[in-house]
């Protein structure tokens, strides 16, 4: 049996999911190279900071919709059959204020808050909330069953699945993507390199994608559990400030957010912004605290900042050649890396096999 030597760059959710799917084929010898690995907390490493949940934001008819649509069955299956992956179902409520449209957060949530969204036939229990039940200033709302992921469990779970299938993990910092060709676990030259480096693709030699930029997200993690996920299209505190509340599975705490600050690189939590985040969360979701309590009823675990890897024109999921090296890119997923992870990885895997087939090493 011919062995396909594959290097995956990056150990965020995109890189790990792609490596996991590729590792199911025993003819693939896979090496994951990454500067950051699960367990690390660094501003450059977005995946640990994510909520993370399934709130579809892809425009109807787009590749983004396809990726999110194709990811839901995998997340649902993991939730039902693999509790060790750290995912659980939660009731989800999404509120929309028409006045937020045109803001950074309104643009981000524009598909999510549609009155007739495409995902209504994907997620379970979707229903519109009657106007008579909406507070003043809310133009429409819906509720459905979604999932929330404990990233501190799920990312290591993906590593474990990969290792069970023979994947090798190595720390590395590469200046040029071509350097990955000689970094395989078995010493053979890579047949293809899969680039899942997120924002690092801005500076990675051979890629240097100027279309990438960060959208800074600041969060507060608390011990309070409201028993549901809640989000809204914007806030009155700024066009790039929003409100969302999501409780991670298996004791992972509740994420309070947040911000969507484009082209903002600041790695340090802003204490004033943290207070606004907590105040907004308690107003939107009073169940967070006991009756009569405000922010003082929140039990804070930590504050955090992550940089979502946004890309003009959307994620880059395509085959490429850098010098003589065959490359498949899968990066630039912004704030929807988890909820599009399996859809994007499926496409990346197909591209990998397309490369291998052209080399005469595999058949689709």
Question: Which secondary structure elements does this structure contain, and how are they paired or packed?
Answer:
Blueprint lengths: L3 E6 L3 H11 L4 E7 L28 H19 L5 E10 L7 H5 L18 E2 L11 E10 L1 H14 L3 E4 L20 E4 L16 E11 L6 E4 L8 E7 L6 E6 L1 E2 L8 H14 L15 E12 L4 E7 L2 E7 L9 H18 L6
Parallel strand pairs: 1-2, 1-7, 2-6, 3-9, 7-15
Antiparallel strand pairs: 3-5, 4-5, 8-11, 8-12, 8-13, 9-10, 10-11, 14-15
Helix pairs in contact: 1-4, 1-6, 2-6
Question: Could you explain how this protein is built, in words?
Answer:
- With 364 residues, the chain is of the alpha/beta class.
- It has a single domain (4-359), classed as D-Amino Acid Oxidase, subunit A, domain 2 (D-Amino Acid Oxidase, Chain A, domain 2, 2-Layer Sandwich), CATH 3.30.9.
- Helices cover 22% and strands 27% of the residues.
- The protein is built from six helices and 15 strands.
- The protein has helices spanning 13-23, 63-81, 104-108, 151-164, 271-284, 341-358; strands spanning 4-9, 28-34, 87-96, 127-128, 140-149, 168-171, 192-195, 212-222, 229-232, 241-247, 254-259, 261-262, 300-311, 316-322, 325-331.
- Strands 3, 4, 5, 8, 9, 10, 11, 12 and 13 form a nine-stranded mixed β-sheet that branches. It has a six-stranded mixed β-sheet with strand order 6-2-1-7-15-14, with helices on one face.
- Strand 1, helix 1 and strand 2 form a beta-alpha-beta unit.
- Helix 1 packs parallel to helix 4 (151-164) and helix 2 crosses helix 6.
- The protein starts with a strand and ends in a 6-residue tail after the last helix.
- The mean pLDDT is 96.
- Keywords: FAD, Flavoprotein, Oxidoreductase, Peroxisome.
- It is found in: Peroxisome matrix.
- This is D-amino-acid oxidase.
